[in-house]
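Archive entry. Fields below.
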Amino acid sequence: MQEQTETDQIRLEMARTLVAHLEVGENKDADRVIGELAEIKENELFTEVGRLTRELHEAINGFLLDSRVSEMTQVDIPDAKERLNYVISMTEQSADRTLTAVEESLPMVEALDKQAGELLAEWDKFRSRLLTKDDFRGLSDELAAFLQQTQSHSKSLHDNLSNVLMAQDFQDLTGQIIRKVIDLVHDVEEKLVKLVRITGGKLEVGKKVDDPAVLEGPVVPGVEQGDVVTNQDDVDDLLSSLGF
Amino acid sequence: MKILIVDDFSTMRRIIKNLLRDLGFTNTQEADDGTTALPMLQTGNFDFLVSDWNMPGMTGIDLLREVRADAKLAGLPVLMVTAESKREQIIEAAQAGVNGYVVKPFTAGTLEEKISKIFERVEG
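PREDICTED_STRUCTURE:
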């Protein structure tokens, strides 16, 4: 405050001198005083810029020295990438196991269905007394074979269904991994917010630009993804409005 | 009926292959992106193409454009099965000459409905 008054005093003094020079027409001297006044203002500006630069420098250094930040960049983020890759491979394995079990099971079910249908027709004939003794012997052999196959197929189907069941174990593990990565993203977000604050916090919040060339991938509830359809009915409506 | 299934994820190719087999289409082949698919289409005498959109190499929309630009393939029915669900993309695919558009995740019923619709129109 004291300093401020002093500067004011000096400026007032100079202003008076300036007026005095102007009143008697000493233009050269008047110009010199104006120059000196401007210099005072410039000096103040430089001091202020210097102070802000130093503050910014210290804040950024403080940010960089924050051990959590370097830990995140050197350990956590590479870790997170590994973890997410593991999630991809686990879900892929699970899908493969499930698909294999289903692909093995479907033909067995189809075979049982087909044979049961054929036997049922024969059985109906038998009940309507349309079968000869020899026919019946044949049917009896077929029935025995069918029951045997039913038993062995049932066992295989049971194994395959158990495989499908066990293949769902990825959900628990990937869930835990993804939750950890979400925590990390949250941490990074906090640090970034801090960094934005240091740099003045005056960055305009940019609205996400909808670039048609960027493929968005699956619709995620609660995530702004531009003008998207939400289900197949919307797609059908849109296409039919285009004359499809 | 010979069908080419194009998707970069083998899981999705398997699912589509199994669904098609259930619908009675047993003659299917697979490709993992447009670059692999295009030469197969040009020499393979396919009757139908089912393609994803977002794939490394050549995307599904580029594959569709290549197909429509190729005199021999121009009339091939193409069904897009994709997670891309922006309105402008669906319009883009329609303008590029797609015959049907199914968004993932989809049901067996939807796939069947779209396929039979395409064949009705192609044959009728």
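CURATOR_NOTE: The mean pLDDT of chain A is 87.
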